[in-house]
Amino acid sequence: MSTAPLTLAAATDGNHGRAVARMAKLLGLTSRIRVPAGTVAARIDAIASEGAEVTVSDGGYDDAVAEVAAWADDTTLVVSDTSWEGYEQVPAWIIEGYSTIFAEVAEQFADAGSPGPTVVCVPVGVGAFAAATVGAYRRPDEEPALVAAVEPVDAACVMASAVAGEVITLEGEQHSIMAGLNCGTPSPIAWPLVSQGVDVFVTVTDDEARAAMRALADVGVVSGESGAASYAGAVQLAAAGRLVASDRVLLLSTEGATDPVAYEQIVGHPPPSRPMSPAT
């Protein structure tokens, strides 16, 4: 067995890879992160700021996942939020880890003296976060919320799989501005929960995501393209008559202004500055 230091590795469109790199730094480990072709410099720089070695794939997200999977050996631990045959435990743990978010949401609803949400809109990439959402809001011991899974029009791998009745892979690469959702294949470990627990599948265009970013900015919420997809999905639900005035709608925004240049172009002003976290 090798005695070389352990390296954590991941494929990412942004947030997941930065989190893996941050954890590696906290543990005194090195990290290697692979991003899809076309990933903007700001997201690459954010990951590199955590001490990671960042490389760019020639292909899309699914290609980056396959490339990182091949890195696994005695000194490289792959930390992926999507699964494949023979690699299920870590992605399952990641889904479990998202429960922290929903515990915090429950506390905030309770602090406000309000029952929980009746509708939850969740942005969907490979489906790991959506699986956690289903686990939180479709429990048999509680009144279930309606769970709406929101995907880009050209990266709707979960909706396509739902129509097919099985996990399928979209043809070609996905190029939505909702970069964190540009996935071509659902995670098999997430699929059972997602396929059985999601009530509504919604697809949104890039223009709808841009409009959602502006609407959120108008009420002081800084949300990037992928994060704002949930709001865009809720707008579609309302237009289709699926929301009523008494609904309590939870919008899950999965990113801030991770591409500040695009954010300013879309919203019309730069994202508010905030102090950087102290170095650790």
Descriptive account of the structure:
With 280 residues, the protein is α/β, with parallel strands linked by helices. It folds into two domains: 7-80, Rossmann fold (3-Layer(aba) Sandwich); 95-266, Rossmann fold (3-Layer(aba) Sandwich), CATH 3.40.50. The chain has eleven helices and eight strands. It is globular and about 60 Å long.
Shape: globular
Overall number of structural domains? 2
Cα separation of the termini = 30 Å
Question: In percent, how helical is the residue content?
Answer: 40-55%
Give the SSE string.
Answer: EHEHEHEHHEHEHHEHHEH
Q: How much of the polypeptide forms β-strand, as a percent range?
A: 5-15%
What average pLDDT do the residues reach?
93
Q: Please identify, by name, the CATH architecture of the largest domain.
A: 3-Layer(aba) Sandwich
CATH class group of the largest domain = Alpha Beta
Q: What is the CA-atom radius of gyration, in angstroms?
A: 18 Å
Determine the number of helices (DSSP H or I, runs of at least 4 residues): 11
Largest sheet: 4 strands, parallel
User: Uncertain runs with pLDDT below 50, 5 residues or more?
Assistant: 275-280
In the sheet with the most strands, the strands line up as: 3-2-1-4
Strand tally: 8
Structural class: alpha/beta
Give the CATH topology of the largest domain.
Answer: Rossmann fold
Which labels suit this protein?
8 strands, 280 residues, single chain, Rossmann fold, 4-stranded parallel sheet, alpha/beta
